[in-house]
Amino acid sequence: MIRQPSLESRACAEFPVLAGSLAQNESCALAQSSASAETAAPARLSAPAQPRPRQPSAAGKVWLVGAGPGDPDLLTIKAARILGQADVWLIDDLVGPGILALAAPGTRMVKVGKRGGCRSTPQDFILRLMARYARQGRSVARVKGGDPFIFGRGGEEMAWLAARGIAAEAVGGQTAGLAAGAALGLPLTHRGVSRGVALVTAHTMDGSRPDWRGLAASGLTVVCYMGMNDADSLARECMAAGFAADLPVAVVHRVSCPDQRHVVTTLAEMATAIVCAGLQSPAVIVLGEVVALMETTRLPAAIPCPQAAARAA
Question: What is the CATH number of domain 177-293?
Fold first, then answer.
């Protein structure tokens, strides 16, 4: 029986023309993919794998698949089906091992996110990979945490593929900002409290910020992505724009995952509470009066923050 080559060696054979930083980046991504796959499904990968039978069509297709916040049970039925049938996965950083374990034996797995020891994979390189595999007649799953069209660059990728005549389809997923509500028993909208929810990002390419003043006046629940590295500035900007200092805030790390953790605090104490609780990215920040409605009796206790409690006393 012939042993299946490693992911890294197959990459070198398949893409001999790639050179420089892109080739180095792919090798690093593939090495990380191999390690992640072995961790996710050691029993399956420890035995020699049979080559997966393939019947490539004249033209392949790219699927932008939303993998949800982390819990495999939150995948849509369609997403699970597409992932099980895809020849190639191009995997973002926030896709967890429970999702990776759903790949069929012989599926080519390529990590294209950011991991320790690797530089962030250039977006242009990811686009080229999608096009190359699709033109080989393969079914390509571009696997993204959450939903591909919510801070996932899904629209950019769909437009790029369409401009080159490459078939593509998006499969929606549950975004972490909405999943956080269910995970904590926190209604993001509630009659008489909040009539809507705004999903915003604190990190943009041009350094611009959301319209905090408009959001403060709207009365909407605000769910902020990518705000952990600058939580102190974020809180100060929000208060300067009209958000109350005592506005309830929930910060949720790794929504729906086995190691999910959260802290409940106020806007004024948010940065201190995050540091005190040891929370890091990935996390979402929920700002709004609805946080006070959390049914905490159904949940593990929030992470305590003695420093904040002492100041409140």
Answer: 3.30.950.10
Residues 53-84: pLDDT tens digits?
444 445 799 999 999 999 999 999 999 999 99
- Residue 10 is encoded by which pair of tokens? 């197959």
* Contact (Cβ atoms closer than 8 angstroms) between residue 283 and residue 252: yes
270 is catalytic: no
Which one is the CATH code of 62-174: 3.40.1010.10, 1.10.10.60, 3.40.1550.10, 3.90.1150.10? 3.40.1010.10
Listed in order, the ranges of the chain carrying CATH 3.40.1010.10 are: 62-174
- Single-letter amino acid, residue 253: H
Out of 114, 124, 232, 246, pick the active-site residue. 114
The counts of H helices and E strands in the chain are 12, 10
Catalytic site residue 78?
A: no
205, burial (CB in 10 Å: exposed 0-12, middle 13-18, buried 19+): exposed
Q: How far apart are CA 81 and CA 77, in angstroms?
A: 6
Query: For residues 2 and 78, is the Cβ–Cβ distance under 8 A?
Result: no
- pLDDT classification of 307: cutoffs 50, 70, 90: low
DSSP, collapsed to helix, strand or coil, labels residue 88 as: strand
Confidence of residue 301 (pLDDT cuts 50, 70, 90): low
List 93, 226, 230, 239, catalytic entry: 226
The count of other CB atoms within 10 Å of the CB of residue 102 is 18
- Contact partners, residue 190, CB within 8 Å, separation at least 6: 290, 293
Instruction: Name the active-site residue from 61, 71, 87, 92.
Output: 92
From the list 230, 222, 228, 243, the residue with the least C-alpha distance to 277 is 228
Q: Which residues contact 2 (CB under 8 A, 6 or more apart)?
A: 48
61 is annotated as an active-site residue: no
Q: Is beta strand 248-253 parallel, antiparallel or unpaired with respect to 261-266?
A: antiparallel
Q: How far is CA 255 from CA 187, 202, 278, 283, in A?
A: 15, 18, 15, 7
